[in-house]
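Fold this sequence, please.
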Amino acid sequence: MTALLLRPWSAEDLPLLTQANTPTMTAHLNGPESEQELVDRHARYLRLGESGEARMFVIEDDGVPLGSIGWWNVDWRGSAALETGWFVLPEAQGRGAASEAVALLVVDAREHRAGRRFLTAFPGAENAASNGVCRRNGFALVGTITETFRGGELVMNEWMLDLGAVDD
């Protein structure tokens, strides 16, 4: 693997969501989405990117898409914050791509956070790989929450990274 880069999400990236929409890839998310849900998510990524409410990216290695990552504005514990989420396709897993992508995303979040101090992540509590990515990138485990997601209960670990003081 060469040095990864994060390329802004584009109108041509819907096939990447489809590629990741398998039972194995969505096992920690209560299963795959419908075709319409994928189309809607893709449109949301584009819309929120245009409005500045989110920054979604394709994780690339030498021009080859390996997955997706992004951040979006949220209210977290009564404060304006950012939330992140990601996926890496099976053929690229186990080589540090997710950790490297999160490190790149943290730099982007610090640069574009618009007064938001915290970056949060909520991987499934049973998702050892994603929880390890959070740990390796300096996030602090602050709790566990259970919410309804994709029609079922999902137990998630609640991770937080302090992006540092904000001046704006």
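The mean pLDDT is 94. The helical segments are 14-19, 35-51, 97-112, 128-136.
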